[in-house]
Design goal:
13 helices
Length: 310
Amino acid sequence: MSRDLSIVMYHYVRPISNSKYPNIKGLEIDSFKRQLDYFQENNSIVSAEDVIDASYNSKKLPSNPVWLTFDDGYKDHIKFVLPELKKRGLQGSFFPLARPIIRGSLLDVNAIQFILDGMTDEKILISSLKEECLNHGISEKEYYKLWNSLDKRSRYDTESVTFFKRLLQRELHLEIRMSIVSRLFKKFVKAAAENDFCKELYMSEADIKQLISEGMYVGSHTYNHYWLSSFNYNLQLKEINLSMEFLEKIGAPTKNWIMCYPYGAYNKDTLRILKKLNCAIGITCKVGKVTLGKSDPLQYSRFDTNDYPQ
Ligand SMILES: [Zn+2]
């Protein structure tokens, strides 16, 4: 019996070192298997439904409960994660984005990851970013003001890489950052056409339906993967509603459902919207254990896979 819960977050789970993208930040499939061995030996892996029940009803979870969550809807999840979970009789919770699946278009968050895979020299990376900013009408003074004012702390990235990501994920005007990301992607990533690249990267609608039919949980990670906290109420509502429509269409729960905040970012408006839409659980990127009955179910913290033996 336990009141503590550990939620673990995964992104890419695939063979990495001998692959086409050897620098992508993710978990080797063999390390994933070892981590599951570790959890099965030391913890009890619980389902999304268990977590909802334990958060709102008196249901107790088994000892040392761990809940496995997989963000972003990568093809890795159907190719490598699902077979491993099935073999072990475990449930995972998956949070795909709606736009890449509906439209077959590449999200900035992923384009940036593959730019970083393609160019590991940070000096070249940062000088290319600066050059692009100047090309897009940002003055040198404004650029350095951004460098000095942005929070460049991160658990896993250097200051330069964090700056690169933040500027292109959030800080610059949407059209400018989209244009810069697409130019840098062409420059540093040797990839097929966007449509083929997306087919390789993301799960299809059929893949997600398969996850559901195999007993996996599928929840919302919004439509576009924007930083919700940088948007006003109505824009956030639109992002969330579009993803709810998608969940409904594929047969995922839309009552007592689960939201996984892109970048872990949310604010008071987000919480108001989620309450209105009967969201049961919201999972963030804050690091730490959840105490059931005490932690706010819409603001549960998570650990990263890197916090556990692999
Ligand atoms: Zn994400």
